[in-house]
Every structure is written in structure tokens, then in C-alpha cells.
Amino acid sequence: MSLKTITPQELKELLAKGQPIRLIDVRTPAEYTEVHVQGARLVPLDKFDPQKVLAEYNGQSQEPIYVICRSGNRAKTACERLLNAGYANVFLVEGGTVACEQAGVPVVRGKRMVLSIERQTRIAIGTGVLAFTILGYLVHPAFLLGAAFFGAGLIFAGITDWCGMALLIARLPWNQCGGSCASAPASAASTTDSSAPASPSPATPLCSPQ
């Protein structure tokens, strides 16, 4: 079953109609709090259960579900889970939140800033390679195996498009938002396109991370 996509411009036009849509953001709570497309509801990928999501959306209704992340990789994984659960009307938002913001799609921006999971993962892997390389030269050559392990992990992630370290980093405390998946309060957030019709607020999130 092929994965359908929607461009940021098409999403912008859809939101401009003022009708509620099923838009799910699968990033971490911290990323979501920093900035998210207006009307998106948070279901972090590490807690993404397609059956629970479909139950929230009244089960078998085949209205479109649009899935978004930062740049598209995590959203693709979530879309595949929905497809495997038998829900065919799923759309991947091309380019993710980054592309949507660049295209002028209305977003809600909070005050909190956090590095993306992708950047945190690169920093962690780079630090690991550097540390094991230094230990290999200064302490014992066996430590070079640690650097090789990180390199092999990168190759595996590139081939499979799955990165276990990224999933672990997503669970770290600073990537959570104090136990609530609610969007940033209106008083602490701003919308980049005030002329766009206000889409329904994601008042009740689809998850409550522990």
C-alpha cells in the first residue's frame, strides 16, 4: 500500500478553509511546545499506538489523517503504522514542520527552545566517536571498537531509516514538557499568520506522557 503525501502549500490551503482536520504531530513534547502547525495534536512517536489513535478518531471513519514531524522521517514511520493497522486514508506532510513554516502555514510558537532530535542525535554520536577515539589512542586500542560501533550504527540507520539512539534521546527529560501534551497557552504563544482563519485548538491531546 503506497504512502500518500500532501505538500505544505496544499496543507496551507486546506487549513485556510477553516474546517477542522485530523493533523497529528509525532515529535517530542518539547519540540511541539516550541513550535507546531496550528491545529496539530501531539502524539509522540515513542507513544504512537495506531489503535488508540483510531479509537480517538471514532474507529473506522475513513476521513483523512495527516501526520507531521520536523522533517518527515518520524511522520513516515507513524504513517506506516496506521497503514499496517488497516487505515488507508493517511497522508504524510512533506518536509514536516520546517517546510510548513517556510511555506507560510500558520504555526503556534511557544517560548521554549530545544534542539531537534536529529541534532541531539548527531551530537551524541559525534561525542561518542570522539571520546572512544581519544580513549583508543591514549588508553587502549580496544576502545576504538566503541567508535566503530557508533559508525556501524550510523550505517544501519541510513539503510533501515530507523535509529534506536534517536528514540532513546526522545525519552530524555528535557525532551518532555512537564507531563502535559497540551499546546502552549495562548498568552505564551504566537501564531505566525494572524490573517489565517483560526483552526480548532487541540485542547485535548491524544496522549499524556509520563
UniProtKB/TrEMBL annotation:
Q: Which InterPro entries match?
A: Rhodanese-like_dom (IPR001763), Rhodanese-like_dom_sf (IPR036873), Thiosulfate_ST/Rhodanese-like (IPR052367), YgaP-like_TM (IPR021309)
Q: Which residue ranges are recorded for the region named Disordered?
A: 184-210
Transmembrane portions of the chain: 121-139, 145-170
PROSITE patterns per the record? RHODANESE_3
Which residue intervals define the domain Rhodanese in the entry? 17-109
Please give the Pfam families that the UniProt record associates with this protein.
Rhodanese, YgaP-like_TM
Asked whether the UniProt record includes tRNA-binding among its keywords, one would answer no
Q: Which domain of life is it from?
A: Bacteria
Which keywords does the record carry?
Membrane, Transmembrane, Transmembrane helix
Positions with biased composition (Low complexity): 184-198
Record bears the keyword Cell membrane? no
The name this protein carries in UniProt is Rhodanese-like domain-containing protein
